[in-house]
Write a sequence for this structure.
């Protein structure tokens, strides 16, 4: 890892409030330090501005007339998530969808050959594990 990338991982992804503010900015796309302070219930706009300036230092936000605009990058734990508009979802949700479709189609299937029970069991176990991991990823994400 390069020195700048290490610093980014440590200073942003490894720092709870900075990461929380970055996730908030990913959802709203643009905000002032006062809006960030109110939305995340921080002690002061100055604290929000400190973290926003740290994000700006690493090129994760840009400042224009007192408003910060986000630039999306996968850093730290966010590498395991997909962003779609205001939604930030764990990548494991796609495995849950695939296993869910497979398990449902097998459960509704009328043909039952010798491998049916094995395939149905594997798809149900896959669905359960992928849902478990998806919920674990949601719990790890800082609240915004």
């Amino acid at each position: 890892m390069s020195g700048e990338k290490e610093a980014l991982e440590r200073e942003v992804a490894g720092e709870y409030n900075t990461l929380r503010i970055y996730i908030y900015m990913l959802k709203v796309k643009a905000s002032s330090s006062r809006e960030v302070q109110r939305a995340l219930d921080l002690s002061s706009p100055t604290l929000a501005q400190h973290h926003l300036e740290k994000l700006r230092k690493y090129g994760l936000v840009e400042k224009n007339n007192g408003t910060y605009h986000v630039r999306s990058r996968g850093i730290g734990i966010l590498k395991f998530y997909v962003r779609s508009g205001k939604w930030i979802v764990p990548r494991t949700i796609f495995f849950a969808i695939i296993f869910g479709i497979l398990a449902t189609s097998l459960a509704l299937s009328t043909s039952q050959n010798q491998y049916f029970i094995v395939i149905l069991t594997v798809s149900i176990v896959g669905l359960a594990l992928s849902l478990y991991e998806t919920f674990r990823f949601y719990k790890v994400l800082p609240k915004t």
Q: What stands out?
A: The helical segments are 3-13, 16-28, 33-40, 45-57, 92-108, 116-140. The chain has a mean pLDDT of 87. The chain has six helices and five strands. The chain has two domains: 3-74, 91-140.
